[in-house]
C-alpha cells in the first residue's frame, strides 16, 4: 500500500472509487471531496489516492494545519474511503497508519477526525485504530482523536 498524488493521469480512476451502499451516508464521494477541497482552500486540503500496487483502491483527505477555524493548526482527517472491492483487507488500517506517520513527522501529537453517528457508523473501525472521543461535536459529527506519541 502506498499513497500517490491525484493527477490528471489518475483522477478518473480515483473518482470511480465507491464505498458500499450502506456506507454512502457516512462518507462523501471522491468527486465531492475534490470539489470541497477546491472550494475551501483555507482548510489547506491535502489529499492522496491510496494504491495497492498499481491499482487505486482508496482516497484520503486532510485539513493540513489550517490557519483558522475549529481545527486551527491541527491535522484533521476530513475524508477517507476504501473502495468496496478492497475493504476488509487491512488496506484502510495501513493507509491511516501511513497518514498518522506523515502527520507525526510534521510535528503533530494528534490526528483528529469526526463521524456521523448511526447504524453502520465507522466508529468501530476508528476505535480499533486507537481513536478516542474528544467530547466535541462539530457540524453534527462526533470528533475523535488519535494520540501520536513521539517515536
Structure overview:
It is globular, with a radius of gyration of 15 Å. The protein has 151 residues and is an alpha+beta fold. Strands 1-2-3-4-5-7-6 form a 7-stranded mixed sheet, with helices on both faces. The two termini are 22 Å apart. The protein is built from 4 helices and 7 strands. InterPro entries: Acyl_CoA_acyltransferase (IPR016181), GNAT_dom (IPR000182), Sper_AcTfrase_N (IPR027455). Residues 1-149 form the N-acetyltransferase domain. Pfam families: Acetyltransf_1. This is GNAT family N-acetyltransferase.
Q: What is shown here, in short?
A:
It comes from Streptomyces thermoviolaceus subsp. thermoviolaceus. The chain is of the alpha+beta class and 151 residues long.
Euclidean distance between termini CA atoms: 22 Å
Low-confidence stretches: none
Shape: globular
In CATH, the topology is named Aminopeptidase
Biggest sheet record: 7 strands, mixed
Order of helices and strands: EHHEEEHEHEE
Number of domains: 1
Question: Which sequence of strands runs across the widest sheet?
Answer: 1-2-3-4-5-7-6
Within CATH, the superfamily carries the name: Gcn5-related N-acetyltransferase (GNAT)
By secondary-structure content and strand pairing, the structural class works out as alpha+beta
The tally of helices reads 4
CATH architecture type: 3-Layer(aba) Sandwich
Return Rg in Å: 15 Å
